[in-house]
Amino acid sequence: MSLPRVRLGRSELEVSQLAFGLMSLSQTYGPSEDAESLETIHAAIDAGLDFLDSAEIYGVGHNERLFGEVLEKRRDEVVVATKFGLEIGDGGMRANGRPENARRAIEGSLERLGIEVVDLYYLHRVDPDVPIEETVGTMGRLVDEGKVRTIGLSEVNADTLRRAHAEHPITALQSEYSVFHRLPEEEILAACRELGTTFVAFSPLGRGLLTGTVRAATDLHKADMRRHSPQLADENLGANLAVIDAFVELAQERELEPGQLALAWALAQRVIPLFGTRRAARVRSNAAAADLEMDEKLLERIDEIAPRDAIRGTALLPAMEALKQR
Asked: In the CATH scheme, what is the code of domain 5-321?
């Protein structure tokens, strides 16, 4: 199966218009089984999704090793993206953009993935103690050394993107963006267009809320990090469910899965939606979003149902939100 293709930034890399994220395959949202996870990754590639996304921090290396099992046989079919710059410490997550950490991390990622070069290497979060020019300068040297083809950033503001791009071309910027999270519309999407940087939208399904399957924190596994989301807190849940139910009803009117409608909306914004799931069947269902055409009337209906700031509460706890948009 083939999907529409787009060029990554101003690089020579072309990728599927939808991307598949592997984060949920490493215990982030509760238990996962490697056999099922491998089946899901293969299903994604078979469905035409050749832009696959991992990170050093996912499962503390487990995710890249799992991905590496697939790459052993299907490396030529996949554009590999992975990330560095987040680590566990001091009771939570912290950013580490030091040049020596970038060099340590790429060697580990290459070994776990079992490949000679990473196609797209992201800085996972900006380190407030290290100038972005210093981190990106080192990442650029990894390109010169042939360990990385292109570089990207995750969750940065427009000023940081411009400063980084002046140091070395930024091929892609990955940030949260969905019907329920419109912050990138304020500045960063315009900055990406200005610089020729591809915007990759993670959590385009609103961390599951847009599928209509999450009705309360207790619906989620006890190990699922979303259980602590302020959006599912008692003071916000009722108002959020009203918006979610209206979105689900609209999808049903169009005989679509809610997730398909959410992804089609993101595609209409001319970004690459990056979704994740543990289920092969869900991958195939979501891939069908690439065939949907969004007319102006439907886009207007979505804006009426979920205007900017319609969803109450942040998706993440304050400590994690603090690492974003630096």
From this structure: 3.20.20.100
Mean pLDDT of 178-207: 95
* Mean pLDDT score, 73-94: 91
Residue whose C-alpha is closest to residue 41's, from 291, 288, 257, 282: 282
In the numeric block, the tokens 């580490």 are attached to 96
Q: What is the 3-state secondary structure (H, E, C) of the chain?
A: CCCCEEECCCCCCEEECCEEECHHHCCCECCCCHHHHHHHHHHHHHCCCCEEECCCCHHHHHHHHHHHHHHHHHHHHCEEEEEECEEEECCEEEECCCHHHHHHHHHHHHHHHCCCCEEEEEECCCCCCCCHHHHHHHHHHHHHCCCEEEEEEECCCHHHHHHHHHHCCCCEEEEECECCECHHHCCHHHHHHHHCCEEEEECCCHHHHHHCCCCCHHHCCCCEHHHHCHHHCHHHHHHHHHHHHHHHHHHHHCCCCHHHHHHHHHHHCCCEEEECCCCHHHHHHHHHHHHCCCCHHHHHHHHHHCCCCCCCCCCCCHHHHCCCCC
Bridge partners (DSSP) of residue 176 are 202
For the question of residue 29 being annotated catalytic, the response is no
Q: Who's near 234: CB < 8 A, 6+ residues apart?
A: none
| Average pLDDT of span 277-289 | 95
Q: Are 120 and 172 in contact (CB under 8 A)?
A: yes
Looking only at the bridges linking them, the beta strands covering 5-7 and 14-16 are antiparallel
How much is the pTM? 0.93
User: Which entry of 58, 121, 122, 177 is annotated as an active-site residue?
Assistant: 58
Are 218 and 229 a contacting pair, CB within 8 Å? no
Average per-residue pLDDT for the chain? 92
Provide the residue type at 219 as one letter. Answer: D
CB distance 130 to 98 below 8 Å: yes
| Domain assignments of the chain as residue spans, ordered by start | 5-321
Backbone angles phi, psi at 32, to 5 degrees: -140, 150
- CA distance linking residue 70 with residue 39, whole number of Å: 9
